[in-house]
Amino acid sequence: MKLCMIGSGYVGLVSGACFSDLGNDVICVDNDTKKIDNLKKGIIPIYEPGLEELVIRNTKQNRLIFSSNLKESVKKSDIIFICVGTPTRKNVSSADLSYVYNVAKEISLSINKFKIIITKSTVPVTTGDIIENLISKKVNKNLFCVASNPEFLREGEAIRDFTYPDRIVIGTDDKRTNKVLKELYSPLISKGAQYIQTARRSAELIKYASNAFLATKITFINEIANLCEKINVNVEDVAIAMGLDKRIGSRFLRAGPAYGGSCFPKDTKAIVATANKYKTNLSVIKSVIKSNENRNKFLINRVNLILKNKIKNKKITFLGVTFKANTDDMRDSSCLTMIPELVKKGASIKYYDPTGYKEIFKKFKNVSYEKTIERSIDNVDLIIIHTEWNDFKSINFNKLINKKKTKIFDMRNIYSSIKMKNDRISYFSIGK
Ligand code: UGA
C-alpha cells in the first residue's frame, strides 16, 4: 500500500519505518528540512534502539523515502497518517491542535483521488469531526474518509511495541476504510494482535483513557510505596502479589520517581481539559496529576533526610537524567525539577547519561556532565540512580566508592537492599 506519514517525530518515523518493513511504500514527511536531509543520509534524529537499522534497510529497498513536500507526498499516497505533535498549550492544559489542523488544511489542497486520512497523533475527542469539516470545505466527501488510529508504542520499546501490539484500534464507521486498514495491519493481526473497530470518537478517547489509567497505576503504587516506607513493608512484595490478580495486572506497578515523558503528563492534563469542557469532573485523574507533581517534592525531602538535613555544599550524582531508560528524551523528566531544586539548596550536581550531555543543564553553574560512570560517582556524597539503564545494573560500588562517605539512593529499586547491607553500603531505595 502507499502510505504517507506527516510528521517524522517519534510516532511518524517509527510507524513509517515499521510499515515499510511490512512491505508498504512509505513517504515520511516533515517541514523540518534539516531533519529530512539527515534522514535521507540515514541520520536518525532520536535515540531509539533498532530504528537506525530499520530505516537504513528500508531506504535501501526504496520502500521508505523522506520528503519535505507535503502536497506531492499526499498526492502519491492512498493512506495519510497525521503524526504531528499535540503539545500542551501555554497557560492552559488542553492540547494545542494547531499543527494538526494546519496539516489537515494542506491535505485538503492535495486530494486528487480517494484518500484515507488517519489521526495517529493523540488528539482529543471530536478532532476527527473537525478535520472532516475542514477538509469537506475544499473536497467532496466521497473523496476522503477521516479515521482515528491511536498509537500505543513506548519510547525505548517502540519497534517491539509496534510489531507486537496488544491491540490495534481503528475508529471509523466507513466499511471501505475499515477493510483497507484491516488489510494494512493483517501481518500484525496474524501474529496475535487484537483488531478493534470502533466509532471515531471512541478511538480518540481510548488513547487518553489508556494513558490516564497507566499514569494512575504508577501514581497509585508510588503512594503505596510512601506508606511502605513508614511501616517497614517492601513495596515490591506488594506490587508482585497485587499484579498476579489478573484484574489488576503486573505491568506499570513499579514505584519510582514522578512519571514523565512526552505523553502521560500532557495527556492526563488534556483529558481533564476535555472533561471540563463537557462539565464532567475527572476527580481521580486530577488527583493523579497533583500527586505526581508532589512526588518531586517528596523525593527531594527524602534526599534531605538521607543527607541529614544538609544538602548545602553536598556533591550529588545523577545516574541517568532522561525521563526513563533507553531514550534520550528529556521531556518532563523528573530531573528537570529535582536538579534545579537541589542546586537551589546549595548542592553541586554531576550527571552521567548513556545518551550523553544535555544542553538543558547548561544554564546551571553547579551542574556538570561526566563522560563515564566511574568519573561521575568518584568522591561524591550521594549517588541517585534515576533511570534503569542496563549500564547501571551491575556497577561495582564496592570497588568504586568510598563507603564511609558515599550514600546511594536507588530511585528504581535496581539493587538488592540485602546485598548492599551485607556490603556495608549506605543504600536507600523506594518503598522499603
Ligand atoms: C506512554 C505509554 O506507555 C504508551 O503506551 C503510549 O503510546 C505513549 O505514552 C504515548 O502516548 O505516545 P512512554 O511515555 O514512551 O509511553 O513511556 P512509558 O514506558 O509509558 O513511561 C512513562 C513514565 O512512567 C516514565 O517516566 C516511566 O519511568 C514511568 N513508569 C512506567 C513508572 O514509573 N513505573 C512503571 O511501572 C512504568
What report would you give on this structure?
The protein is α/β, with parallel strands linked by helices and 432 residues long. The protein is 42% helix and 15% strand. The protein has helices at residues 10-21, 33-40, 51-60, 70-76, 98-108, 127-136, 158-163, 175-184, 186-189, 200-231, 235-243, 264-277, 283-306, 335-344, 373-377, 397-400, 417-422; strands at residues 2-6, 25-29, 64-67, 79-82, 115-119, 144-148, 167-171, 194-198, 315-319, 348-352, 367-369, 382-385, 407-410, 426-429. Strands 3-2-1-4-5-6 form a 6-stranded parallel beta sheet, sandwiched between helices. It has a 6-stranded parallel beta sheet with strand order 11-10-9-12-13-14. A two-stranded parallel sheet has the order 7-8. The structure holds uridine-5'-diphosphate-glucuronic acid. Uridine-5'-diphosphate-glucuronic acid (UGA) binds at residues 122, 151-155, 211, 214, 218, 252-254, 256, 259-261, 263-264, 323-324. Uridine-5'-diphosphate-glucuronic acid binds at residues 122, 151-155, 211, 214, 218, 252-254, 256, 259-261, 263-264, 323-324.
